[in-house]
Amino acid sequence: MASSALRLNLRRITCRSICESNKCAAAHHLSRNFTASAGLWHDRQSIIPSQNANSGQRRAYSSGLKGLRNKNKKVRDEASQESDSPMILGQNADLPIRARFAPSPTGYLHLGSLRTALFNKLAVSASNGGAFILRIEDTDQNRLVKDAEERLMKDLKWAGLSWDEGPDCGGPYGPYRQSERLPVYHEHVQKLLDHDHAYRCFCTSEQLESQKRELHEAGKPTIYPGTCRSIDAAESDRRAKAGESHVVRFKSNKFGRPKLRDAIYGPFQKKDMEEDFILMKTDGFPTYHLANVVDDHLMKITHVIRGEEWLISTPKHIALYEAFGWQAPIFAHLGLLVDIDGSKLSKRNDSVNISKYQKEGTFPMALLAWLANLGSSFKRDVQPPRTVADVANALTFKFTRGGIKLNLAKLEHFNSRYRDAMLWKPIPALADQEAKLIDQHLTQPVLKEIEKVTNGDIENAELTAREWRLPLELVPTLSDAEKKAQYVYKALVSKQGGFQSPSQLVSQHPYLFWRVPLNVYKMSLTKARPEQKVIDALKDVIPQEGLWNGDCTEVMQAIQSKVEPQGVDQLTVHNALRVVAAGGQDVVSQSSSRMLMLLGRKEWSYRLDIVIRLLNDLGEN
Ligand SMILES: Nc1ncnc2c1ncn2[C@@H]1O[C@H](COP(=O)(O)OP(=O)(O)OP(=O)(O)O)[C@@H](O)[C@H]1O
């Protein structure tokens, strides 16, 4: 039932576009029926008449609107009796969805806002065509942060969320920056004034304060009491023309207590009447409520997917849609990401800025998969997603309501799964973009770690204690940067994941990047001697160049075929090889054949010579 509801809504959208191009009368008829069956009644002909409309047209409009309101009320009452099961987004979406991410440039992108952007993108991705729109809501001029818009776009691109329409690339319904749309809002506010759905309020802040105080003292709700609601229209025009400072307020009482059916939260209605909220501020900028509704309608947004903090304001928006005679889009309010203490993640909290994850080398796709999974879930047995479309296919689109706490351990899980999936792929199959990601997020950070340790720039207690900083480093002896990068990439593949971060890889597996210091060998050999039969077998296979090809399975087979008949088991073979290559049996597990392949014949020969010499010394003492 849920998905059929969504299908109906989607059909409604298509019919709307047919109607708007006025292609056929039948389309109008269809539009009315589908709309009626899917949600609120909406009559396409009840568009607010222009200012030049004659009185007959105005009367027809007013009575049409009244009828529409009555019908809507009936449908809403019915809706509230339906079960509370939320509609499902993103499934059976056989028609285009137009969804928007609408941040305010009052700070940088954070995990919460990125997640909301992602769900908009996913809803579009899971639908057939459609568009993901970026709209900058910069109407709060006092809180603007200078480089926020630029950073928002950069961060969204870094995360892999590209948009089809936006302030930088334009689109059919631009401009996409609200500060550039002021004439549009003024025109729409004028329409509301003309139709007595709004009025100018000339109350000063001092008056508002004292009104509030009086209401409070009288034990009444402290909402705006509607002081200016009854100012005569001509008088209001005169005062505005004379330059008297004012705001424009909405006549909320004309629209009762609007109900809505949210795609995630189900039926919703506020207990109290809305106050006459502000549409236009004294500085001539619109409030969020007005700008949002006007833009969503004009930009043909089909699904408004945003944070749950806006659910409480949505009845205001429904009333505005009604006042304009417009069909409301589908609303889906997402549970908010919250901090450990339950407070909403917001721009003011630096620790959740996207730049933190960029710096830490988190893979964007892993971050997206993690965010999508917070408060929703993936279908069973899905592969680590490699694209936004993969995330959309993997997601159930069933959402938890309420605040969602960050689970950072899970991010590490997604990051390592994604990284491992990329490393398991053979090099030729790596798409360009992934190869770049590996280079940027793994190879280069590992090289940087190596450099820091080599230069003594970081105090790495473990490496220093084990004296891994000898002059015989393996990687720095490789001549050029490209060779170094290739070697590190091979080291990463040889580990096939199995590490949490570049610095952890370097500190826990130093033998991949440096030759083993003598004292490390000595300590290990004194504790436990490697099996001599394995050392002899290794000595035999080193000159056989032909075996050291490909994945070195032939080297392993040759060693095993020599020692197994002498009763040496596989574990003993591996332990002995680990001592030679890594300086100890206790190195964090590492496959011997991968170490053979990575270090190569010459390096094994070098390390084996040292071990044999030290073993001889030990034997003599
Ligand atoms: N913690 C959060 N979890 C989920 N969505 C969020 C969160 N914070 C913001 N959003 C959503 O992200 C979108 C853009 O929000 P916006 O740019 O206004 O950021 P903000 O963090 O809410 O700002 P503020 O600094 O005012 O708290 C909105 O749809 C908003 O609902």
From TrEMBL:
Compositional bias of kind Polar residues: 48-57
Transmembrane segments: none
Keyword Lipoprotein: no
MF terms in GO: ATP binding; glutamate-tRNA ligase activity; zinc ion binding
Statement: the UniProt record of this protein carries the keyword Lipid metabolism: no
Gene3D superfamilies: HUPs (3.40.50.620)
UniProt keyword terms in alphabetical order: Aminoacyl-tRNA synthetase, ATP-binding, Ligase, Nucleotide-binding, Protein biosynthesis
Gene Ontology CC annotation, any one: mitochondrion
Region spans: Disordered: 48-88
Entry superkingdom: Eukaryota
GO BP field: glutamyl-tRNA aminoacylation
Domain spans labelled Glutamyl/glutaminyl-tRNA synthetase class Ib catalytic: 97-379
Major site of localization recorded for this protein: mitochondrion
Compartments, as annotated in UniProt: Mitochondrion
Record-listed E.C. numbers: 6.1.1.17
Listed Pfam families: tRNA-synt_1c (PF00749)
InterPro entries for the chain: Glu-tRNA-ligase_bac/mito, Glu/Gln-tRNA-synth, Glu/Gln-tRNA-synth_Ib_cat-dom, GluQ/Sye, GluRS_core, Rossmann-like_a/b/a_fold
Family of this protein: Belongs to the class-I aminoacyl-tRNA synthetase family. Glutamate--tRNA ligase type 1 subfamily.
The name this protein goes by in its record: Glutamate--tRNA ligase, mitochondrial
Organism of origin: Trichoderma asperellum (strain ATCC 204424 / CBS 433.97 / NBRC 101777)
